[in-house]
């Protein structure tokens, strides 16, 4: 007896670690897979030859299934896809682009494909493109995000009622209670980003990890909606962008202010002032940097306790 | 055996109907209370003498507890509070202002007070002010909303872990599964707005009710953040505002564009072009205008089915 996501990816728990630029290299992905979830290498910040190294190292570090997340808009996407195919990776999560671009190619090589969407419309498009599962990611998620601003609470039941393929909920989930709530809303499994960014195995800078732990409710905001909407921690760089946007700055001005390499500077090099710091709203609930194994123990304990609570009077009416 | 919200308000189900301008008069509030929930008259759109009439009519229409929602920023708030006290209403929900303004006065008259908040900070402030319960309302909620943009999925567990008073979740809830998910995240009860706006008993215009039913995912957006953030359906009026905001329009220009009486025009008079149409994201999940009694039957059936599903393999890991 397994649920759809456990069956699809042959994993013990329907818990997926989101592929995150500058956070999720082979070390994080393999630790998650070794703990019974599905780890994803985030290819967004890796040139093809570096991605290859990460895949080789992940294969050495785990005998369990793991995958790669590929943002389709990246100039390296095609090369990355070729690396993935030639390396024998069996799972790919695509995002930030059309699911039609690589799904057929990947599936012709026996690779399982999930596609990340932020709306019902794109979920239906992904299903039509033949993906094996869809990740529906709410407005509260960290990093790049959809234009519809639909939250996890509203997006999950809507997508669940419209698609027939397995549904993975993302955005706002960092606890066992959150996993259970997302599944109650119609998800078959969950993808967690922020919680895994604040682990010992994440490749991000310790400064950034500490800021995730310190973040409180209200400390992130979705910005740069004219370029590509992205949820940022409210640091000095964020304030520059917010000020420009309040003035009605042009796309060109915003691009200039963003410049190149901001995400690397912030999350990988630990420049908390000038760097772009991408994290989810649910960072408010994350209070410690832990080994991945301990995160899984906590998630599963919280989940099981939450299920048991339905026997109590709070829920009887 | 009752949960905290059932005990506090002496109601059969911990389901509260949000007080909504132009939608929730005595007819809706009494129908909700007669169905076992807590109905609220939305005072925001009612002058004090009209509010008094609604209270008298609600008392005739139900022997069950009902309440009044009072937006504190309203120029009529003080008079409304006096009407409430002199009419013997036993429950008040305050919103859009400081919980310190009226809580002591109301409690000195034996009135139960709940306060609506959009952040952890304001939840703590409300608890300190001595309210009996706090309503934590997420970004996805319709109408006026907080500046933090924290979603229900992130806000509820955070507030639940910080306050000791009963917690009511609002924003994005329109189904039994949604009720169960909100409680899983830490709420003791729920407040539903949009679902009750699309009922036969709501006082809003049939044109507006039909638009709620027709709304799809992505059809609302939080706008007018420089004035007071409000979630709107994307009609012609919304487009005017969105265009002005994209140009970096001043507060004065936005106030001019908004003018007076837009909400009445849209929701009460049914002008779907020039009116301000306030509704939640979860309108995407509402597909019929129903009598309140039937809404309750559906919510309770969905809730109970959702609880039963925890016995199935989907949830076992």
How would you sum up this structure, described in words?
With 317 residues, the first copy, chain A, is α/β, with parallel strands linked by helices. Chain A has 2 domains: 4-204 and 286-293, Alpha-Beta Barrel (TIM Barrel), CATH 3.20.20; 216-281, no CATH class. Chain A is globular, with a radius of gyration of 18 Å. In chain A, helix 3 (48-61) links the parallel strand 2 (39-42) and strand 3 (66-71). The mean pLDDT of chain A is 97. The first copy, chain A, is built from 14 helices and 11 strands. Helices cover 42% and strands 15% of the residues of chain A. In chain A, helix 2 packs parallel to helix 3 and helix 8 (176-184) packs across helix 14. At the A-B interface, helix 7, helix 8 and helix 14 of A face helix 7, helix 8 and helix 14 of B.
Descriptors for this entry?
homodimer, 317 residues, TIM Barrel, 2 domains, 8-stranded parallel sheet, 3-stranded antiparallel sheet, globular
Any idea what the CATH architecture of the largest domain in chain A is? Alpha-Beta Barrel
**What ranges of chain A have pLDDT less than 50 throughout 5 or more consecutive residues?**
none
CATH superfamily descriptor of the largest domain in chain A = Aldolase class I
The percentage of residues in β strands of chain A lies in 5-15%
